[in-house]
Amino acid sequence: MKKILFSSFFLLFFSIALLAQQKVVKNVIVLIPDGTSNAVLPISRWYNGGAPLHLDPYMCGMVRTFCSNAPIGDSAPTSSTYASGVLSKNGYVSTVPPRDENDLFPEKMKTFEAYQPAFTVLEAAKLQKKATGLVTTCEFTHATPADFSSHTPNRGKAYVIGKQIVYNNVDVVLSGGTNYLYKTRDDKEDLRKVLQQRGVQYIEDAQQLNQLKGPKAWGLFASSDLEYDLLRDPAKEPSISEMTQKAIELLSQNENGFFLMVEGSKVDWAAHAHNTKCVITDFLAFDKAVGAALDFAKKDGNTAVVILPDHGNGGLNICSPLTNAQGYSTIPLKTLLEPTLKGMAPQQYANLATTVIQKEKGNKSSFNTFCTEAEKSLTKALSGREKDALKKHYEKICEVYAIADSNRVVASRKESISSLFISILNDRSFFGWIAPGHTGEDVFLSVYHPNQYRPQGVILNTELNAYLQEIMDISSLETLTRSYFSPLRISSLKKGDYMDTTLVDYPVLNIKVGKKQLQIPAYTNTVYQKKGKKSLLDQELSTIVVYMKENKTFYLPESLKKELGY
Question: Which pTM was predicted?
Fold first, then answer.
């Protein structure tokens, strides 16, 4: 009898262990189409000839996404929760917010104090010796990539965020954002040199993308965000699918596996502007990146792919005043699509205006030529009211052309023409918008897992993070947060220890240990030993040190704190 019981226990233990192994994967790819409302999916399918999206076969549920204290989410707190599991508020990047009387799920708020940096799945992957990567179509310091790789209660601190991402040793970054790496940095630090010292291959030329061999490589292809996919110059900027394929190629060289976050950033930007054409084409470009990730995952057999937006935006849907006026259930697909398919992107009308102006040497009478050319791509002619509104801005460009070179013309008034055409195109469209801001609907969840292990139904954003921890075999992000972001308050420093605020936004902790004077710059993973007027690198940490001015506290590894005598 005892042998039977022992055998049964062994089989049960073996089954549980096997199940756990089946859930855990070597590689995880998270793809986030920023600001994608649910109706973008059917609109994009119809626009693309009715073909299914790459993500369609793996649709498994919905995610409730929100700020900690408000039902409508901002990219910073929503992606922060995906990355860290901590509910957060508007503007906070993987940082614990102060408690609020409006908190929606106070029982789910972690026991951390306010402004505590919250460890992320990307940072946990680094501790597992996995490679890590970020791909985004905006600057690498923007909210969503920042959420996985940095910590601040102010998403606007792009230079601080950029420094954290570099010193956090993210292996592969492909995006825009040279301004935040070196061009206009407020601390004057050239972070390209830091990358070079750490063995990172760096490029800014899209044509060099295929030449990246890795395993560590950064490619930044614009000063800030990349262009919308429809307007992108392939010679200058790679597509999101090309960047995703290259990132996977580089990261998969790591024998321990990798974690990659890919963001289709500009869907959100287009939605804010009610730029329907660019919402659709940027989402379809994102879905090609999904296809690239899925192709790799299926061949690899040990990779999970998780696709979900961080929130909706604008409320785009297949409805407008025209659908009711013409009988919504009787309008054929061709009629529904024609205004959007035929029309150009708003920015292309602005480009057309400057092209005509330059060709006509700034002649204001060329406005009629512009209108004739623009109407070729519209389903109905420009009205007198529309022409009057356009003419004012067109003539202003002509005036600028008369006193400046063509480059100045391009930069001066194109945005006003583009904005007017958004309104003109939407007046002709069967696709309608609700508002220019984020929306609070649940977002779709699509998951590929080699062993079919995936969430089902409607889940919370915190549960999405729990799923990522489970398939990545992360024991507890909360434990890692306490171990690697232990607080050291400035008010508790011993005599002789101090914070150097020569650069206000980049303080340096100065601690005396025996005869050594150690310097620990905020937002880096470096500890320096000061000798005379020089600072010699003493050690490199596995995680970054974060300073929060809101509570005047440095957050650093518990082991380093003990080494410093605290």
Answer: 0.95
